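User: Hey, quick favor. My workstation is busy. Could you predict this chain's structure for me?
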Amino acid sequence: MSLWGGRFSEPSAAEFKQFNDSLRFDYKLAPYDLQASLAWAQALMQAGLLTADEHQQLQQALEELRAAVLEQPELPLQTNEEDIHSWVESQLIEKIGATAKKLHTGRSRNDLVATDLRLFCKAVCGELITANLAAIKNLLAFAERYQAAALPGYTHLQRAQPIMAGHWALAYVQMLQRDVSRLKEAMKRMDVCPLGSGALAGTTAPLDRQALAEALGFRHACENSLDGVSDRDFALDLLHSASTGMMHLSRIAEDVIFYCSGESGCFAMSDRISSGSSLMPQKKNPDLFELLRGKTGRVFGHQHALQTTLKGLPLAYNKDMQEDKEGLFDALQTYLQCLQMLAFAVPELSVNEAHARQQATMGYSNATELADYLVSKGIPFRDAHHITGEAVVYAQQQGKPLEELTLPEFNQFSAKIGDDVYPVLELDYGVQQRSALGGTAPSSVRTAIKHASDWWHAAQAASKHVRQARLSDVDKICDLIAYWAEQGENLPRSKEDVLQGIQSFAVAEIDDEVVGCAALYVYTTGLAEIRSLGLFPSAQGKGMGAELVAFLLGKARDLGISRTIVLTRVPEFFGKLNFRLTVKEKLPEKVIKDCDICPRKDNCDETALEYLL
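Assistant: No problem, here it is.
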């Protein structure tokens, strides 16, 4: 069924129809088209353009279609409709007759498809964040396991300096953390609803577009109808995030391929992620990682294709924009699958520790230690660098590593070299010296693992049920605080107090319903306290208390806070979250502000704990 046939006296040519129709790929938008149509039907009823009975018919039919599509996602492909919008309308007409024809009142396929695609991108963005977090979790486990395993580090693909394998893994943790950040920023920018923009000039329906946007889970309605129907920046943002993420996956793949090679042999792959040769029986190939590397170009290509399609397009909607979907769908599915495969593969990797340690000592990788040793003897670094270079050339000519040169041989280059040089040239000495923030020393790696683990817990919480509180949450937060104040677990807070401090609150949700809250209060000394933590009884036992705490610890770290405290009657809960016991005497800020006015001041049964970030 065509949505535009009245203007035409002849049917479309079969050749044109095949070239023009998009159902073969935009059927993937069916769940989002139905979601948008349900919200639109509700808005039409509220605007007086549908009766309650008509709305009820449409709602029931749309819900039935949504259930059918959920069970059979390729159901639309069983028809010959032009696009997903035509399929939905034809199915509705078949179900409820003429009432279905009222659904399109005041809207266009232009604003509908823009809305569908944003809903799709928001959903996939959430999946990509979850997949990145799974990969980060396994990289952190690898870093924990091999935090003190030596590995040769490279520049220009030549041995440079020894590093810890844990340090290597944490480099990719950093990259994937940035990928999560990019996806979150992209999600914020795409959180704008174009529905109600009409074809280009807006809708004639007297409806509340902001309420419609919120009903669909968007933060805002777009403020310009021309931009609303023609904007595809959100798709480009997501493709850019996917391309950058795939570039990171390609880099880790290249590293793993090299470290697993016969020339290096520092890593080993399990048979579960390897393949062999049809001709050469001895081969064990890193095909999984080669595919991660190879699929990167595919995602890059889709990003460039959409940029080229959009370049120079006039306002508003143009049929060129139909080309936004196939590449986007494929790129995001490819990126998601590659992230999932990386998370699967990392636990199947191991470090050949003895061999890797031996490799880390080769290639005169301790030369910088010799130069630093000479600096400690009062020689300027540039001169120390030159002396060390001469010593390396001599050692190469003798076929010896630096540490096997005799003292007389060293003294040819500098009389300041003494017997104390030999401990300096040991691998462990050089590595241990690199203990500054971001260095490869095992102590620095342990600190970095803790910081990354804190970040992961906060990001994991934010990807599930927890988010920053908004003004619309104030009443629920007040209900929660009042409930637990009545139980004697929290201090009461006025609504004005909550309103003024809304930025300090986080909330936990189940099915878009606020069921928990907590606040991060910052004292003038820079100390922070997690307080007003509470969940409605129906939400307890689901891990959301821990998610709220993790989210607020992440917020504290972003603010540069180094110490966060709690006063609680359930210290075992916070103990499981790695808080440690402290005493209230160390918390003068808390005592002065709250403890002196607490009704239990003289009979306090709370335990003080702290978390060092």
